[in-house]
Write a structure and sequence with these properties.
heterodimer; A: mainly beta; 7-stranded mixed beta sheet; 4-stranded antiparallel beta sheet; B: mainly beta
């Protein structure tokens, strides 16, 4: 059974960089055709797609966040990571990693991590 | 961005009754080359991640009870729960993955009447 687990600091100071890692178990991140994404959800609010990566390193970002986001992959560790720079209180959210259905990043997400709450505060 | 608008924002239905949630996209999410609607439905319970219920507007994800069904095409879509069970209490989201960025509806909170 595929499992995804987010890890990283739960508290980040304003103007600093948020860094999270998603560890994939029960399957290979290099499996052909699967794309891996980050989605966030501010407390009590809706869902926002942040971006997606393929094991080759190809990335796809939400234009509204593109200038601040970097997603990378480490196939040797079966992990992919998110960096979001210059954070503000508006970036406070539960951050989820997820797998897209096979074939493209333009797919629904069938496996999700449990999520990690990241609070931006001094 | 494609704006996804769900209605209603909240809904109370009696156990065993039908529940319907609508989702409207600001532009068509039907890809003409493959005749697929790039539309998904998710269920989210408190403290849990979203769970994929339906993709391609009407394809049920493995393990999802058959009381859940999706319909619609183009810009107008519906999630139907044919006979509401207590465990269906949740927030439901629609999502379009036709265009970048992928976008979600604001959510519909489903409760028991």
């Amino acid at each position: 059974q595929l499992q995804l687990q987010e890890s990283g600091p739960g508290l980040v100071k304003p103007s600093e960089t948020l860094s999270l890692t998603c560890t994939v178990s029960g399957g290979s991140i290099s499996s052909s055709g699967y794309y891996w994404g980050w989605i966030r959800q501010p407390p009590g609010k809706g869902l926002e797609w942040i971006g997606t990566i393929y094991y080759s390193g190809a990335t796809y970002y939400n234009p509204s966040l593109k200038t601040r986001v970097t997603i990378s992959v480490d196939t040797s560790q079966n992990q992919f990571s998110l960096k979001l720079s210059s954070v503000t209180a508006a970036d406070t959210a539960v951050y989820y990693c997820a797998r897209h259905l096979s074939g493209s990043y333009e797919r629904a997400s069938d496996y999700w991590g449990q999520g990690i709450l990241v609070t931006v505060s001094s | 961005d494609i704006v996804m608008t769900q209605s209603p924002d909240s809904l109370a239905v009696s156990l065993g009754e039908r529940a319907t949630i609508d989702c409207k996209s600001s532009q068509s999410v039907l890809y003409s080359s493959n005749n697929k609607n790039y539309l998904a439905w998710y269920q989210q319970k408190p403290g849990q991640p979203p769970r994929l219920l339906i993709y391609w507007a009407s394809t049920r994800e493995s393990g999802v009870p058959d009381r859940f069904s999706g319909s619609g095409s183009g810009t107008d879509f519906t999630l139907t729960i044919s006979s509401l069970q207590a465990e269906d209490v949740a927030v439901y989201f629609c999502q379009q993955y036709y265009d970048t960025p992928q976008t979600f509806g604001q959510g519909t909170k489903l409760e028991i009447k």
